[in-house]
Automatic annotation (TrEMBL):
Keyword vocabulary terms for this entry: FAD, Flavoprotein, Oxidoreductase
Residue stretches making up the FAD dependent oxidoreductase domain: 26-384
Lineage: Bacteria, Pseudomonadati, Bacteroidota, Cytophagia, Cytophagales
Name the record gives this protein: Glycerol-3-phosphate dehydrogenase/oxidase
Acetylation keyword on record: no
Coiled-coil annotated residue ranges, if any: none
Any GO molecular function: glycerol-3-phosphate dehydrogenase (quinone) activity
SUPFAM superfamilies attached to this UniProt entry: FAD/NAD(P)-binding domain
Pfam (any one): DAO
Family designation: Belongs to the FAD-dependent glycerol-3-phosphate dehydrogenase family.
Gene Ontology biological process terms, A to Z: glycerol metabolic process; glycerol-3-phosphate catabolic process
Cofactor dependency: FAD
């Protein structure tokens, strides 16, 4: 089973060997989410000796838990943040250009129940289109009520006046993260998951000279010298800042976003529903994603971080209630296939506030007196621009050779434009051919993992050999995305996934059992059981 082709330069054991053999790095990046991976790709593409360290799996936190939109931010335009929208629309265009296997043009429909809203949103979204310049997508247009009903078959038509259709980008966030890690390796960089930075090293003047890290599978400690160190740990940036200077004030304020996933029958077709203003001022999306519907999100300020945040009951109720006002068939808790929460690293406000509207969506780039470079805030769409600014800063701080950024036209690993209709392997882009080769070499790997899903055994083998998957969670949550689509189905797939992984990694039955226990406990947090109505107490005796 080892004969099929793969990616020769994306091997964890090779990266660990390179870590041991490299005397000094130009740039060490802490954090394997969107921002950190972007910085590592940029740095490696400029020819710098680059190492990225992630304490868990790539995109484990915020970067696998987004609304899956590559967008300029209609809401930010309404708030007057013109610069952010311009920047994001340009970056949206570059992502469509450089990762066409992962990024798609998505049609959004806003149903209007008043003539005023139709005019307001029609004008606003036309301006949004024009701001994209040469990267403009399809043209925004006004719709009749009949056309809205046609595009959104299950929409509530009571009082419906018409609607607006506009276009934005959609993608698979965790899959893009994996492809960025592979792109970094192709550019000569080294990336390691499950390697936690435990300390920063400094010289006698207090300047950063590198990091101390522990490879979590073996427990081995590494002392890694570097000319520049970048803190790109998202909602965990404050932890690294505390390592650098214990008295440092928090730089980010986490905000929680929750999504629920429904069967596609709640809104059949290819069009997404956009609800521009909910009762509490939020925006809500109902978006087709991997033959399911992704519904969200919330925006709840929190005071603590977690790799596995938990959805609040009020957030779940808000999503279901709001969606139910717009859909004829109203979703209930029993209809939810999966629910997941993520934390956004919003740049902290200068005053105490519980309003996330008062916390900037723009990114922040700061350099400590020690030379530690921290990049935080922002969003997936602008990851490349954030990375460019960060590496430019690292060149200045560490006196590295002046080398221009080249990522605006850098094709991301998997780049492929020739999609096969109804082929679930399209998401692998150019790697699809290698997975087909695996199946041809061993036909049993072409068997599906679950009768309701198209994913096959070969994808698990591929994820272990060529995408650095180390756990059942890595495969079912971030390589195949099943946990985020249907938690019960993921639990049913887990034993077979564990067995396939054990065969590839040469692990025993005890490892499989431990993995199954851990994954089952995790997956239960993605499930919603229908609430049993509380019966009133009897008033008769």
């Amino acid at each position: 089973m080892k004969a099929a082709s793969g990616l020769a330069n994306f091997r964890r054991e090779l990266f660990l060997q390179e870590v041991k053999n490299t005397p000094v790095w130009d740039i060490i990046v802490i954090g394997g989410g969107a921002t950190g991976l972007g910085v590592a790709v940029d740095a490696a593409a400029r020819g710098f000796k680059t190492l990225l360290l992630e304490q868990s799996d790539f995109a484990k936190g915020t970067s696998s838990r987004s609304t899956k939109l590559v967008h300029g931010g209609v809401r930010y335009l309404a708030q007057g943040d013109i610069k952010l929208v311009y920047e994001a629309l340009y970056e949206r265009g570059l992502l469509l250009q450089n990762a066409p296997h992962l990024v798609n043009i998505q049609s959004f429909v806003i149903p209007n129940y008043s003539w005023w809203n139709e005019m307001l949103y029609g004008v606003g979204l036309t301006v949004y289109d024009l701001m994209a310049g040469k990267y403009r997508l399809n043209k925004t247009g006004l719709l009749s009520g009949k056309k809205v009903k046609q595009l959104l078959p299950n929409i509530n038509t009571e009082g419906l006046k018409g609607g607006v259709r506009y276009y934005d980008g959609q993608f698979d966030d965790a899959r893009l993260a994996i492809n960025l890690a592979q792109t970094c390796a192709e550019q000569g960089g080294v990336v390691l998951n499950y390697t936690k930075v435990t300390g920063l090293t400094k010289d006698n003047t207090g300047k950063i000279t590198g990091v101390q890290a522990q490879e979590l599978e073996s427990g081995e400690i590494y002392h890694l010298p570097a000319k520049a160190v970048v803190n790109a740990t998202g909602v965990f940036v404050n932890d690294i800042l505390q390592m650098n200077a214990p008295a440092t004030k928090p730089l980010v304020r986490p905000s929680q976003g929750v999504h629920v996933v429904l069967d596609s029958s709640f809104l059949p077709g290819e069009n997404a529903l956009m609800i521009p203003k909910t009762p509490d001022g939020r925006v809500l999306f109902v978006v087709p994603w991997h033959q399911h519907l992704l519904v969200g999100t919330t925006d709840t300020p929190l005071n603590q971080n977690s790799l596995e945040p938990t959805a609040l009951e009020t957030e779940i109720d808000f999503i279901l209630d709001t969606a139910g006002k717009y859909l004829v068939r109203k979703p209930t808790r029993a209809d939810v296939k999966s629910v997941f929460a993520g934390l956004r690293p919003l740049a902290a406000p200068t005053k105490n506030t519980n309003s996330t509207k008062e916390i900037s969506r723009s990114h922040k780039l700061i350099v400590a007196d020690s030379g530690l470079i921290t990049i935080t805030g922002g969003k997936w769409t602008t990851y490349r621009k954030m990375a460019e600014e960060t590496v430019d800063e690292a060149i200045t701080v560490a006196h590295l050779p002046e080398t221009p950024c080249s990522t605006a036209n850098l094709k991301i690993h998997g780049y492929f434009t020739e999609k096969v209709k109804n082929d679930s392997l399209n998401i692998y882009g150019s790697d699809r051919a290698f997975i087909r080769e695996l199946i041809n070499y061993e036909p049993a790997l072409g068997q599906t993992l679950h009768p309701d899903f198209p994913q096959v055994q070969a994808e698990v083998v591929w994820a272990v050999r060529n995408e650095m998957a180390r756990t059942v969670e890595d495969v079912l949550a971030r390589r195949l995305r099943i946990l985020f689509l249907d938690a019960r189905a993921a639990m049913k797939m887990a034993p077979q996934v564990a067995a396939l992984m054990a065969g590839e990694l040469d692990y025993d039955l005890a490892w499989q059992e431990k993995q199954l226990l851990e994954f089952t406990q995790l997956a239960e947090n993605y499930l919603l059981e229908p609430q049993i109505p509380i019966q009133p107490l009897s008033t008769t005796y």
